[in-house]
Amino acid sequence: MPRSLRKGPFIDAHLLKKVEQAMASRVKKPIKTWSRRSMILPDMVGLTIAIHNGRQHVPVLISENMVGHKLGEFAPTRMFRGHSGDRTAKKGAAAGGKSAGGKSGGKSAGGKDVKKK
């Protein structure tokens, strides 16, 4: 649910102070932050912000399309590595996919079609 327009966007004061200092000095050094809840403001465009994902700081270059989103949206906290059932199915298909003679395609060594029961 979006924040009320009357209240304005939320950004932590310590992060806003760092952004203002970076804009004034024009330094391209990444700004480290743990504030995933802060909203991206138009003042941040062009800066690199290193957002903490729980384990490390992920550097994110802020573009115009990101304005209005939260910083945490661009530093995923979980890494999806696939379903465990898919891994076992792929291993079984790779091992049983070829016949003993090294040929595949449903034909026996003599060249005749083999019927599966």
Largest beta sheet, briefly? 3 strands, mixed
Distance between the termini: 57 Å
How many β strands by DSSP?
A: 3
Sheet-strand content, in percent, reads: 5-15%
Walk me through the topology.
Layout: H1 13-25, E1 31-33, E2 48-52, E3 57-61, H2 84-96
Parallel strand pairs: 1-2
Antiparallel strand pairs: 2-3
Entry keywords:
117 residues; three-stranded mixed β-sheet; alpha+beta; 3 strands; 22% helix; 2 helices; elongated
Commentary on this structure:
The protein is about 20% helix and about 10% strand. It is α+β, with helices and mostly antiparallel strands. It has a three-stranded mixed β-sheet, covered by helices on one side. The longest helix has 13 residues, at about 15-25. The mean pLDDT is about 85.
Give a concise summary.
By secondary structure, this protein is of the alpha+beta class. It has helices at 13-25, 84-96; strands at residues 31-33, 48-52, 57-61.
